[in-house]
Amino acid sequence: MPDTATAAPAQTPTVIRREDYTAPDYAIDSLALAFDLEPGATRVKSRLAVAPAHEQGSAADVRPLKLDGEALKLVSIALDGQPLAEGRDYRVDDSGLTVTAPPQGSFTLEIETEIDPKGNSELSGLYLSNGIFCTQCEAEGFRRITYFPDRPDVLTRYHVTIRGPKDSCPVLLSNGNLAETGELSDGRHYAVWDDPFPKPSYLFALVAGDLACHEEGFTTHSGREVALRIYVEHGKESRTGWAMDSLKRAMRWDETRFGLEYDLDLFNIVAVSDFNMGAMENKSLNVFNDKYILADPDTATDGDYAGIESVVAHEYFHNWTGNRVTCRDWFQLSLKEGLTVFRDQEFSSDVRSRPVERIQTVRALRARQFPEDAGPLAHPVRPDSYIEINNFYTPTVYEKGAEVIRMLHSLLGEDGFQKGMRLYIERHDGQAATCDDFVAAMADANDVDLEQFKRWYSQAGTPEVEVTGAYDGDSGTYEMTVRQTCPPTPGQPEKQPLQIPFAVGLLDAQGQDIPLALEGEDSGATSATKVLELRESEQRFRFPGVPEPRALSYNRGFSAPVNLKSEQSAEELAFLMAQDSDPFARWEAGQRYALRLLLQAVETLQAGGVPEFDTAFIDAFREILRDPQLDKAFAAEALTLPGESYIGEQMQPLDVDAIHRAREALRRRLAETLTDDLQEVYTVNTVTEAYSPEGEQAAQRALRNTALSYLSALAPEEGAALERLVDHYHAADNMTDRMAPLRLLADIGGEAAEATLQDFHDRYRDNDLVMDKWLALQAVSARPDTLERVKALEEHPVFSLSRPNKVRALIGTFVQANPLRYHAADGSGYRFHADRVLTLDGINSQIAARLLTPLGRWARMGEERQRLMKAELERILSAPDLSRDVYEIASKSLEG
Ligand code: TRP
Ligand code: ZN
Question: Where in the numbering of this chain does the Peptidase M1 alanyl aminopeptidase C-terminal domain appear (predicted)?
Fold first, then answer.
């Protein structure tokens, strides 16, 4: 019997490397597809016009034609009308089909395959979501539909015929323009779609089913009339208004801010209930997870509305950044994702509060991307290698990628950035481009050198920036010394200095910004915020002619995605918290101050003591509560303490119990000291107008629910606090106000909590998306029996391991958002986690691999938990028939 812990998998999967990229051997000039839809056996006929993409001087230059294919049944294959023979003319294996000796020059290939949408639980390729045929082809799903060069640098024109039953599939959709429809015998009908824009296979889409449609129109800047259609399951059409509205605003915004206009007469969105990710930007036929389309006040929170607005915009923005200009290979994924996330963040900032958007973005970056960059799965924004590309749709590629674009924007300014965008699109429209192409367009349009900047694409890890300052009273000069380092990451032991735009300000004793110019700059360059350009591991900056500053404000607006190491006194932080003119830096000072107190409290608790908290911090909180000028959404952010996971990132080994107790102690201390102010804020911010998901009233709800949360920390088991929560819940006329107290009640537990959870369940049992919330808020509960409860909920009729939203809501929330219970000392959380990953791997490997990542953070834990976590990773790795997806995450996680 071999030692299972060290047994290698039967076959170690191939590593794909960026440096191995070669251009395709063949171009596909056009592609005709015909689908005969049947749930268990769909026939797909394809006709490819193939042309060699390189010189063929003689027959000796002819290369084999390799087509990708996976989980396909080959029915027939013919070349220029002649059937091909297996063995003699072509061969087939697990990964595709090779025509071994094609003729010289161009030819036509006809292939027929059979696929099984009903049995497709991976939700990649053509599958059924609640009876609706739909596709997901990014990144490599098209090869599960037919044999094809399934790579983003093969662009072709698609001509698609869909045949299906009229009763169950009255709606037949694909990309581009509807060319023809008609009747067939046996109760079937057909539709023909023609997409005039050449596209890679990952942007192909097909949807067929019985769907309701919400249609409106949009007139583009140059006068094109575009029909906008949102398709959903029947009964859900009343919840599509906000998505439609968001789409129109996104279309207008892209015209005004980026000068980019929509390019077809039709734009379709389909929302389905089972989907691996949030949404997909298929050309003119975006497919969405229901979660990012459906909303009404009774079932969606303000946060859900914001999420819909940004995802609808994101997918729409891909039409130019992703579709018109696509990626050469999957290593370039951030070319479209980082840029498109930047664009959707800018959209949200322009239509909502810019500071609040920035705060929320940074909170998410720290919760998801910084940990990734500090762990075993750290990789550059443009990775160098992968085993399974689906594992690289990561916070690093998306969110850090967006930060990289934002830094270019800071360095070049809005005008310079837009000049670069215009050149990028002018050069690459209709092409598959690289990250280097993008940076080159930015550099050329602005006549600047961005060679060093490119390291942001190749170097993983979150840089650390340390600032020290000294004031020379004699010369009136402030000198800042700035050092940058970057911790090693897997495969990158040595790091090089980056080009970092680092925004700083100096405040005088009255809290006013001191106008700054660097030594040698003329007075015209004076400004309140100075963006220092860091390029070396250590640099000095001198600001002459300034009074002695009272406080320093660093990395204003979070101008770079770095960790700040500088020591600032508690007084300085309290001062910045109250005075900084940069709202982000003001929020950040509060977070840093809170973090410091919380980490001290953790140490006190570990030593068996009772934590105490600075009154200066509590006073600063009081000021925020009492400041009538302050934007209420900002105040809500400023009053929210750093989360347990983020606190945990700052300590080693991580002590989840002490962190939870420390944070609760500070919350209670704030609530006890500031009860009257919190009561006042709670009362004053009651919204009386009819519900709207944004603006002042959403800000009021956010602030009021923050106050509610603190007030519930006051001896929660006592009647008054409990009663307030239950009353708040029953008085609510919208989901935001129902969820806030319910979330708190789920933490407190007891009869009132159970009764309210039951009420919520009974009220929304038929609404899938709301039931996801119900599952999630029980999975995140701090109650000691949460794991037992999660296991019990797996038996609830609404739960299913084959539905990604359910898995994410229940299991995903438990393993990712509940560190306190996930890291139970007996290892029960880890065992449960590994069991579910293994079961899921046989159903949906993409979802299984994504779920797995928390196990990889073992190095942060104490010895015993490390041992338990690694044992689970080893158990996963020794399981038979592991997918490439799970194999890659588990093996890299174990290497640490
Ligand atoms: N391109 C999509 C987006 O960011 C992401 C996506 C949707 C995706 N579905 C997927 C990625 C499935 C991998 C697999 O908007
Ligand atoms: Zn995207």
Answer: 571-895
Reported as a single tens digit per residue, the pLDDT across 205-244 is: 999 999 999 999 999 999 999 999 999 999 999 999 999 9
Q: What is the pLDDT of residues 277-321, one digit of tens each?
A: 999 999 999 999 999 999 999 999 999 999 999 999 999 999 999
Domain positions in the chain: 22-114+128-208, 211-327, 332-445, 464-560, 568-714, 765-896
**689 belongs to the catalytic site:** no
Probe target for ligand 1 pocket from 120, 137, 138, with the most ligand atoms within 8 Å of CB: 138
Q: Give me the amino acid identity at 781.
A: S
- Find, among 20, 19, 96, the residue nearest to 65 by Cα: 96
Q: Are 387 and 845 in contact (CB under 8 A)?
A: no
Nearest to 133 by CA among 145, 146, 149: 145
What would the DSSP string read from start to end of 73-134? Answer: EEEEEEETTEEP-BTTTEEEETTEEEESSPPSS-EEEEEEEEE-GGG-TT--EEEEETTEEE
Task: Compute CA distances 141 → 68, 70, 138, 201, 385, whole Å.
Answer: 10, 9, 6, 9, 20
**Catalytically annotated residue among 122, 281, 309, 315:** 315
- The residue whose CA has the least distance to atom 1 of ligand 1 is 280
**CA–CA gap between residue 822 and residue 205 (Å, rounded):** 38
- Reported as a single tens digit per residue, the pLDDT across 686-731 is 999 999 999 999 999 999 999 999 999 997 767 888 999 999 999 9
Residues 6+ apart with CB under 8 A from 545: 476, 477, 517
| Ligand 1 atom 7 nearest Cα | 280
Query: DSSP 3-state assignment of 154?
Result: coil
| Structure confidence at residue 2 (pLDDT) | 40
Specify the CATH architecture of the domain 211-327. Answer: 2-Layer Sandwich (3.30)
Q: Within 13 A of 333's CA, how many CA atoms are on the CB side? A: 27
| Cα–ligand 1 centroid distance for 140 (angstroms) | 11
Residues with CB under 6 A from ligand 1: 136, 138-139, 276-277, 279-281, 314-315, 337, 390, 393
Query: Hey, what CATH topology would domain 568-714 get?
Result: Zincin-like fold (1.25.50)
CA-atom Rg of the chain in angstroms: 28
Residues with Cβ < 8 Å from 699, sequence gap 6 or more? 353, 631, 632, 633, 636
Mark out the alpha helices in 263-400 (DSSP H runs).
302-317, 333-351, 354-364, 370-373, 395
Q: Which CATH architecture has domain 765-896?
A: Alpha Horseshoe (1.25)
Ligand 1 atom at minimal distance to the Cα of residue 318: 15
**Could you give the CA distance from residue 117 to residue 396 in angstroms, rounded to a whole number?**
32
Ligand nearest to the CA of 402: 2
Q: Which fold has domain 464-560?
A: Immunoglobulin-like (2.60.40)
Q: Tell me if residue 588 falls in helix, strand or coil.
A: helix
In this predicted structure, the answer to whether residue 8 has a pLDDT above a threshold of 80 is no
Element (H, E) at 212: strand 211-219
Q: Do domains 211-327 and 464-560 have the same CATH topology?
A: no
Instruction: Enumerate long-range contacts of 607-613, CB under 8 Å, 24 or more apart.
Output: 611/662, 611/665, 611/666, 613/665, 613/666, 613/669
The dihedral sign for the CA sequence 621, 626, 629, 632: positive
| Superfamily designation of domain 22-114+128-208 | tricorn interacting facor f3 domain (2.60.40.1730)
The tokens 């919380």 sit on which residue? 598
Instruction: Report the Cα 148 to chain-centroid distance in Å.
Output: 29
Nearest listed ligand to the Cα of residue 336:
2
pLDDT band with cut points at 50, 70 and 90 for residue 11:
low
Q: Where does 332-445 sit in CATH, by number?
A: 1.10.390.10
Residue range 102-124, pLDDT digits in tens: 999 999 999 999 999 999 999 99
CA distance 335 to 327: 7
